[in-house]
Fold this protein.
Amino acid sequence: MSKINFNCNEANHVCDKNQYREASLWEKIKLNFHLIYCRACRKYSSRNVKLTKLINSKNVHALDEDCKKQLQRTINKELAKQQ
Amino acid sequence: MAKHVIDPNNWIKLYADYLYNYTITRVNDKVIAQDLVSETFLAGLKSMANFKGEASERTWLISILKRKIIDHYRKINSIKGKAEVRMSFNTGNEDEGDWIEERVADPFDKTAEDTLENSELGDAIYNCIGKLPQKQADVFKMKTILGYETETICNELNITASNLWVIIHRARTSLAECLEKNWF
């Protein structure tokens, strides 16, 4: 019994990992077991899943780091010119 | 009201993703969106002196960006001639027996409203991300939107993995809260 029990902090951590598909099978089993009896974590979990769905809806974009660095270089150059 | 000050050194860090996301939902092309964003920053630098501090930096940049997007559409419009939409329901005798029902849009297809809602969603999410502390926002964007590996992010930002998960957890909690208020 003690093997399958874990506290809410761990449960939330596994839930976060699971949003990126990085939780192991055993962790997922433990999480689901925890969710059976823990209402607060159920709430967190469902919110978390909703958030993931929203973000994965392919309408959220970000510039990647290389591109940003290049932009920064252009801006610096332009700033230097002005001074 | 406190005057807003302008500081181009932080532009990329603070607004690049927001502007990019704003653009891409409106032009649908990564390369063009990148170009427009960098043009916006450059135009912003040039007219920095005109910044009166009445609006926030972000609002000001967005207003430049809007101009740029409109210009972009003007340009491609003049290349193509005019963007014309021709519709003819009955093309002639050949299609006799074709029913207009067949040409009605598929109701299960994406509707205009869906697309609109989706592009607004992107803006809403970025508004919420903008409210996060800088570090949380960075980590969250790298991990979730750009899909970087945990290890890569840890190396880049010099943090440990458990550190990263704590940051992610905090970011997710406040994001969920913020979106719950503003979106659902």
In short: Helices of chain B lie at 11-27, 30-46, 57-79, 112-131, 134-145, 150-157, 161-182.
